[in-house]
Recover the amino acids of this structure.
């Protein structure tokens, strides 16, 4: 179980490699065993500053087709919050490692389980942070009080078109890292990064000492090289799900490892 905080892990990678890489995988896609094996391999190969594990949900509004499909397959596989936390427990007990695990989910299933129950169970398996994709930051502020009782960071999202007020709010209450969304729209791979993302990240960095990571649409070494100039971290999601979707079962792990290795170099 990681004893390293999310922010220190990302900043340490930034200092050492120029950027921290935060892979995202949907829990239980393409199967529970395979998602477990991929995460363990990313940890063993020291390719991740933190790992984001998505809790599948039937209506993932922030997601494009790729992650929606992975979520749908995971739900067919019977994956829910409990299955995901069991998976994280196995990952965290597999060896002594320093890669913080973050869950990413939607509010409805969490609310259904109950905030206390959810954060208590998450803490007991070693979850270090959470991103709730459909909760505005003022609402996240209220959830944060419960999360912090269990030493879990709540990570705010800053969309590309955020007002100055929204940026200020996110920086004031942010924990772990500030997640800048690089596009207007849903997740999915893209040819190039938005021209406005550098300006947005620099604005955010003026207002926080936390690392600032960029996600949504990052899929190429050229994207990562560009981000190294101004961001501390890169979240890679849909591109990994695409690699898995295009791989034979026997090649899943090696293809993801190869893809992340090339991205970060």
């Amino acid at each position: 179980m990681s004893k390293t905080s999310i922010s220190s892990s990302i900043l340490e990678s930034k200092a050492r490699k120029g950027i921290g890489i935060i892979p995202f995988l949907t829990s239980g896609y393409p199967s529970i065993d395979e998602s477990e094996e991929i995460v363990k391999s990313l940890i063993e190969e020291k390719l991740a500053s933190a790992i984001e594990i998505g809790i599948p949900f039937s209506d993932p509004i922030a997601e494009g087709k790729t992650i929606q499909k992975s979520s749908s397959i995971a739900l067919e596989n019977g994956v829910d919050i409990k299955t995901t936390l069991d998976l994280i427990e196995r990952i965290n007990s597999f060896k002594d490692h320093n890669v913080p695990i973050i869950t990413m989910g939607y509010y409805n299933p969490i609310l259904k389980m109950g905030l206390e129950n959810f954060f208590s169970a998450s803490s007991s398996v070693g979850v270090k942070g959470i991103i709730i994709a459909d909760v505005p930051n003022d609402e996240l502020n209220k959830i944060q009080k419960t999360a912090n009782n269990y030493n879990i960071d709540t990570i705010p999202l800053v969309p590309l078109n955020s007002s100055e007020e929204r940026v200020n709010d996110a920086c004031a209450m942010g924990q772990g890292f500030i997640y800048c969304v690089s596009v207007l729209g849903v997740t999915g791979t893209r040819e190039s990064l938005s021209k406005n993302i550098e300006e947005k990240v620099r604005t955010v960095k003026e207002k926080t000492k936390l690392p600032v990571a960029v996600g949504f649409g990052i899929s190429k070494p050229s994207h990562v090289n560009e981000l190294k100039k101004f961001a501390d971290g890169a979240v890679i999601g849909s591109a990994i799900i695409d690699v898995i979707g295009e791989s034979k079962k026997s090649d899943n792990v090696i293809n993801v490892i190869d893809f992340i290795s090339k991205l970060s170099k």
